[in-house]
Amino acid sequence: MRVGHGTVMLPVPAGTPMGGYLDRPGPSTGVLDPLEVTAITWYDGHRRFALAVADVICVNEDLAARARAAVPEAGELWLAATHTHAGPETGCVPGGAPTPQPWRDLIAEATRAAVLRAVATERPASGQVRQGDLREVGGDRSRPSGTPVVPLDVLVVRDPAGRTSGVLVVLPVHPTVLPAAGRLISADLVGAVRAALRARLGPGVWVVVATGAAGDISTRHTRRGTDRAELNRLGALVAERCLELLNPTAPSPEPDGSLAKPGRSESEGVGWAAERVRLGRVDGNGDPEALVAALRGALAEAVAGGDPVAVRMARSRLDGARVLTGSAPARPTLDAEVGAARLGGVALAALPGEPFLGVRDLIRASRPEPVLVLGYVNGYPGYLPTADAYARAEYEVLAAQAAPGSAERLARTAADLLHELDERRGR
């Protein structure tokens, strides 16, 4: 197996409309930290798979198609968004929307450049997946009294001498530390984790951070501020936990997936599969304008009550209803692409939109070995709550376009695709 890495910057000029928050007071005024498009490629001598991660709010299907057409060198390309809420607006509308120019072309060209750089640096490599809990960084944002713990996945890539070449971190936490009032461009939490890990791993070791199944997970109840200092604090917590997983003091109780080592057979090389899944469209949100009016009243009551947690929750519900009033006209059908990949012994699943963390758990439970589950990949149908969440009138459910059961359908499809790849590998 040969693995490569490439990164290019994604410049965002002042005056650019920003995505992520409905009540942003205006366009960007500068840059807090630069945005990136970064790529990892895996090549087994016959097939090449590329994962590209862009510091944008979402990747719509038209952008994914444009990027794939721009990179014929990759047999398969997944384009994932980090979901930063401090980047350019790229058409992040529940149910999907056209990607505005110039971002469709700019992101596609940056993806091509990053993938080609990765191809040029491909070297023999091996690696392992490490998984563990991450505490006090992210938690279920609709449950303020819940335990703030999420799963953290790290794929470490090593050269033939055993030296670390790079790491891929899958972090299922919304990168939303910076406030809605902020007008500086930033990769937010993802960028802070990258910077902290790069500083700790040293020069010559690449770092890629992708956002996992983070639809219902954020730093809402763990963050102590909304500024650079808080980004640095949370980024350091994630980086230190990654290092603990990479250098365990005791054997892991979980099995570790491994990249195929040089000289392994073709059956342990690179493979992928994908399937489009028809999702039911939600029916029952009623009149969005009336819902907004009712939730405005609930927010006023929460403010009068003086409980800051109640105020945050009421404001979140109101934001969810406001998303409905500003959404593009509903498509007659709602479908999305699910992907699976085998990189030697490492399994990856790609989910579109914003899957709840429970979707990751469903896929993980279907397999004896680790699987890295990425969200925000190759399309944006919006929030994908698990079926039980629809009983709660939370932001994500109010803004969702997909009907109950849709997330579970995506999880089953991903598990089936991985099983299909397993069978191919065993032939």
Strand content: 15-25%
Coarse morphology:
globular
Gyration radius, in Å: 20 Å
* Tally of strands: 19
> Which percent range fits the helix content?
25-40%
- Low-confidence residue ranges: 260-267
Mean pLDDT equals: 88
Q: What sequence of helices (H) and strands (E) makes up the elements?
A: EEEEHEHEEEEEEHEEHEHHEEEHEEHH
Describe the sheet with the most strands.
5 strands, mixed
Distance between the termini: 19 Å
Task: Indicate the structural class.
Answer: alpha/beta
What is the strand arrangement across the widest sheet? 5-4-3-1-6
Helix run count: 9
What does this structure look like?
With 427 residues, the chain is an alpha/beta fold. The protein is built from 9 helices and 19 strands. The chain has helices at residues 61-70, 103-120, 188-201, 228-246, 288-305, 308-326, 357-365, 395-399, 406-426, and strands at 2-9, 30-31, 36-43, 48-54, 76-81, 123-124, 126-135, 139-140, 149-158, 164-171, 184-185, 206-211, 217-218, 270-279, 334-343, 346-350, 354-355, 371-374, 383-384. Helix 1 (61-70) links the parallel strand 4 (48-54) and strand 5. Helix 3 packs across helix 4 (228-246), helix 5 runs antiparallel to helix 6 and helix 7 packs parallel to helix 9. The longest helix is centred in the last third of the chain and has 21 residues, at 406-426. The protein is globular, with a radius of gyration of 20 Å. The two termini are 19 Å apart. Mean pLDDT is 88; it is low at 260-267.
